[in-house]
Amino acid sequence: KHLMKTDVKERPEEYELAVDLPGFQKDEVNVGLENGYLTIRAAKGLDKDKTDKDGKYIRQERYAGVCTRSFYVGDVKPEEIRAKYESGVLTLHIPKRDVKTAQQPNRIAIE
User: Fold this and answer.
1) Is there a contact between 8 and 58 (Cβ–Cβ < 8 Å)?
2) Could you count the other beta carbons within 10 Å of the beta carbon of residue 21?
3) Could you tell me which of 65, 66, 68, 93 has the C-alpha nearest to residue 79?
4) How many CA atoms does the CB half-sphere of 33 hold within 13 Å?
5) What phi, psi does 44 have (nearest 5°)?
6) Taking the model in full, what pTM does it have?
7) In what order do the strands lie in the sheet with 65-72?
8) Separation CA 82–CA 15 (nearest Å)
9) Which residue from 7, 9, 40, 83 could staple onto 16, CB 3.0 to 4.6 Å apart?
10) Contacts of 89 (CB under 8 A, 6+ apart)
């Protein structure tokens, strides 16, 4: 519940997502786009076979496992999304779609 805290900022031409992924390396983070859903997946494992010549661990609290988070972004192509990972923060820039071209629901005016 404490992983992948996200800030979403709206700009005139795009949305910017800043996702906290402290402790993850760039190669442990994957971003995918399928059926209008942007999915961020981060996987981390601890090497249990590693021995420490100074002693044994009594307690280890670092995270090991997989976490995912999805956001609906609509009809966006993968090549239109810009991504950058720096200092434990994944930043994504997702272009906005023109509201006029998007399908609007049929509305009935109430008098």
Assistant:
1) no
2) 20
3) 93
4) 14
5) -135, 135
6) 0.74
7) 29-34, 37-44, 65-72
8) 11
9) 9
10) 18, 19, 20, 21
